[in-house]
Here is the input.
Amino acid sequence: MAKFFIDPGHGGTDVGAVANGLQEKNLTLAIAKKIRDFLLQYENTEVRLSRDTDKTLSLKQRTDMANAWGADYLISVHINAGGGTGFESYIHTNASKASVNFQNIIHPEIVKQLDFTDRGKKRANFHMVRESNMPAILTENGFIDTQADANKLKQDAYITRIAQGHVNGVVEAFRLKKKGGSTVAEQKLTAAQEKVRQEAIRLGITDGKNPFREANQFYVWACLVPLAQRIEELEKKL
Ligand SMILES: [Zn+2]
Here is the structure.
């Protein structure tokens, strides 16, 4: 079971950045709720939000919650301000190896979903990524005070894309499997399929038990390596 703690930045009396008729606290809550709804479509996931209403919370209350729950990953969602444009993500200055790995996977997945400028993977001494005991990331999704970014943030479809990017990254990083996805091991094979399976076992391509999950790129590589090694051996003999 993977436990994901999603933190919509700001809330209640702390509205965050405000411009162009938008308030940061409302946007972060909308994004976080969509992340939760999408993530719950995957197997073995638990999701907790630091707040799912317009509520005032200190930064300490947020990381205390995540730490007490024993989350496996923390995502703090924010909207930028200060006259720039685009998307950037943060991990702590002295981030763990896991935090670095997850940022490397999740950041580009978010960028892929958006037509925001990629401002890059960054590091900072932010409370949310420093005081959390688990790997953590803080995302800054566009600039509320830049008209072009604000116009995008006003569209619900764009909020959905931002959430989808976060989820795609998490799915990749944690190898999550969609609920109701087919599991090969449980499928009854036809006689012809069983013959292919037995042949694959004989050739050492698979142990016959895997893949339990939908085949991912690593599984495909794992199948290709023994084949390539055999070809290499044969070529040496020629
Ligand atoms: Zn913020």
In short: The chain has two domains: 2-174, 184-237.
